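Moderator note: this is an archived Q&A kept for reference. The question asked for a predicted structure of one protein chain; the sequence and the answer are reproduced below.
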Amino acid sequence: MFALKQEKKPVLALSGKQGPFDLTYYLKGALAGGICCAITHGALCPVDVVKTRMQLEPQVYNKGMIDGFKQVVRNEGVGALATGLGPTVVGYFVQGWFKFGGVEFFKINLSQSLGKEKAWENRIPIYLGAAAMAEFIADIFLCPLEATRIRLVSNPEYASGLIAAFPKIIKDDGVIKGFYSGFAPILFKQIPYTMAKFAVQGAAAEKICDVTGIDVKSPSTSGATKMGVSLSSGVIAGVAAAIISHPADTLLSLVNKPGAGGNGSIVSRLVNLAVETGFVKLCLTGLGARCVMIGSLTAGQFGIFDIVMAATGAKKFHFENPNEDH
């Protein structure tokens, strides 16, 4: 994934209880990220279908998430809830690979460059910077698959699935308009979302451990206890990230609908859509469904990530307080 030298020693900012942070470690982190994102986004595909319909057709799907499920099933059958499953699973495996693997890479190397004490003092900025850089890279690969998913959800008759939709979109709209019309809103959506997700999760996990006295770095702490910390902090992080990124998520759903926002540049289309929709609707339409979805999804991601990392034998990175004994 990254051009790295095989080094078997831990980074300088950390104790010998962590690492080694070499190429193998980063590949394990990337694999765990791909798996956790593919599983969670795939499992929540029905929720995402209803959420996207609520954003695209608020005049039809305007009675809440539960009624939205009923409407989709009544009008199109249960199978409609799996619309876009293929691009969802593939897209988010790729995105998770670069996002989680990238966050580990940037976080660890930023900590190494600062040293143990400075890394501890600046752990929130490190979370934020690492998440932003990793997400930018991940979104380059995610955007075409997300555009395909939205096209299939908004018009289930457009194509039978991912493989059929890809060449059809290229033929109809070209690569840039077809796949990257939503690149700006996906960056505005995903980068703040990921920054909040990792920074809030890290801060929440730290606070939970402070309050309860749990030491997740200790070998004597049970796997179930560590999982409880991951899930609890993940829910908190997911809800915060969903609220922060929701306006851009609504714009992303709208801009991938054919003809939405006119025929001008991507920026002019986004401005037109924002004006047409209104600030309140951008912030609130489908927000409840998205908080449920992202809260569950984020908790599941951090839980599965920890399981896969443990299964591969990787000693996960943790910031260390230099004033405490390790």
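Archived answer notes: DSSP finds 13 helices and no strands in the chain.
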